[in-house]
């Protein structure tokens, strides 16, 4: 029985990447040493880091005036790093689109940033994206938004007009899953453990004129320092960068982000079409705002939801339990989830429904 992993993160990785890691693990590139053992200052790793950056630049067409930085600390550390680096006047705007946006607001406030909510969909249980209140105060340092709301299952593909105020995007859960134009953003950050690789690595893409504005930041939070040191101020997460690098090469071999996006839309459509005609399952998200990455759905009865999840497990369909804040089920359909996995899920749900009507 094939196993399909619908985890929201850490999440499924491409099978060929896992196989390659396994094959290369004892001796990296004939060195007699594992990638787990080599120095981050070695030539071997220097090449890994350089390739990962270049492949990411190629895939996302990242302009030359943007730095690509490799951080640790997850998306959560960037909730602190972004205001410290990019908000010299301590005033930001934020779109309140769900749990992770609120966590970003909390962390910004902890470092003395005034956070103005420019739109909220809290009253709609975050089942749709917030509408941005215009006009936007042009003296804000930046505007924080979450391109994909992992828990609530909404995704932003059209960006709000913000005039001269830079956008800062938490792209953690649809990084490389949708083809955004980097130049629309001042800063993009994303934890790797959803669409890119294992946990322990966070990608930061930042426009060069926005950094270096604030002196004496804590070193591990200083974008300028990381840019100056080529992400090697201290020991970077060597294994996570290596594994992410393999995923980037896999993405290129698949045909790049347009191919992946088309596949992601086809996978999501398969599941949404099923949910929309179902008499048992519902997805509560406004159609135009639905995520292609994370699809929450419910039966409306907690005991039935539990039975769905249990039965799914027995069919090799794993990690479908919804986030504890919203309950029900959630299927995450990141790049490495094949269409066959979504088809298996839909077949299972249809059979479950037929049995329980
Ligand atoms: N932002 C979003 C949109 C997320 O989904 C997550 C993790 N689920 C985070 C931030 C936090 O990421 P991390 O656990 O890497 O700190």
From TrEMBL:
Major location (coarse): cytoplasm
Single GO BP term: L-serine biosynthetic process
UniProtKB keywords: Amino-acid biosynthesis, Aminotransferase, Cytoplasm, Pyridoxal phosphate, Serine biosynthesis, Transferase
Residue numbers binding L-glutamate: 41
NCBIfam families: PRK05355.1, serC_1
Assembly and interaction partners: Homodimer.
Family the UniProt entry places it in: Belongs to the class-V pyridoxal-phosphate-dependent aminotransferase family. SerC subfamily.
Name of this chain's protein: Phosphoserine aminotransferase
Source species of the chain: Lactiplantibacillus argentoratensis
Primary gene name: serC
């Amino acid at each position: 029985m094939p196993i399909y992993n619908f985890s929201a993160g850490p999440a499924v990785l491409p099978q060929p990447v896992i196989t390659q890691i396994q094959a290369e693990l004892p001796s990296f590139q004939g060195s007699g040493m594992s990638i787990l053992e080599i120095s981050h200052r070695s030539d071997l790793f220097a090449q890994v880091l350089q390739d990962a950056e270049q492949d990411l630049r190629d895939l996302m067409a990242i302009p030359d005036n943007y730095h690509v930085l490799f951080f640790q600390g997850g998306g959560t550390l960037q909730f602190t790093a972004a205001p410290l680096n990019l908000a010299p006047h301590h005033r930001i705007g934020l779109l309140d689109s769900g749990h992770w946006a609120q966590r970003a607001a909390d962390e910004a406030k902890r470092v003395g940033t005034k956070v103005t909510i420019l739109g909220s969909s809290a009253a709609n249980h975050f089942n749709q994206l917030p509408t941005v209140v215009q006009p936007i105060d042009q003296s804000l340092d930046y505007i924080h938004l979450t391109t994909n709301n992992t828990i609530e299952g909404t995704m932003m593909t059209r960006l709000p007009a913000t005039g001269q105020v830079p956008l800062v995007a938490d792209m953690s859960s649809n990084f490389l899953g949708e083809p955004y134009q980097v130049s629309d953003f001042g800063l993009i950050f994303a934890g790797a453990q959803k669409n890119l690789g294992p946990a322990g690595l966070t990608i930061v893409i930042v426009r060069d004129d926005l950094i270096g504005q604030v002196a004496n930041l804590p070193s591990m939070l200083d974008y300028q320092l990381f840019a100056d040191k080529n992400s090697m101020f201290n020991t970077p997460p060597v294994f996570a960068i290596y594994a992410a690098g393999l995923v980037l090469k896999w993405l290129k071999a698949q045909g790049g982000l347009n191919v992946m996006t088309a596949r992601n839309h086809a996978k999501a459509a398969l599941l949404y079409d099923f949910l929309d005609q179902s008499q048992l399952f519902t997805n509560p998200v406004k159609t135009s705002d639905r995520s292609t990455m994370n699809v929450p759905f419910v039966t409306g009865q907690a005991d039935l939801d539990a039975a769905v999840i249990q039965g799914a497990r027995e069919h090799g369909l794993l990690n479908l339990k919804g986030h504890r804040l919203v309950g029900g089920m959630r299927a995450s359909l990141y790049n490495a989830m094949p269409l066959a996995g979504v088809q298996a899920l839909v077949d299972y749900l249809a059979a479950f429904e037929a049995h329980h009507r």
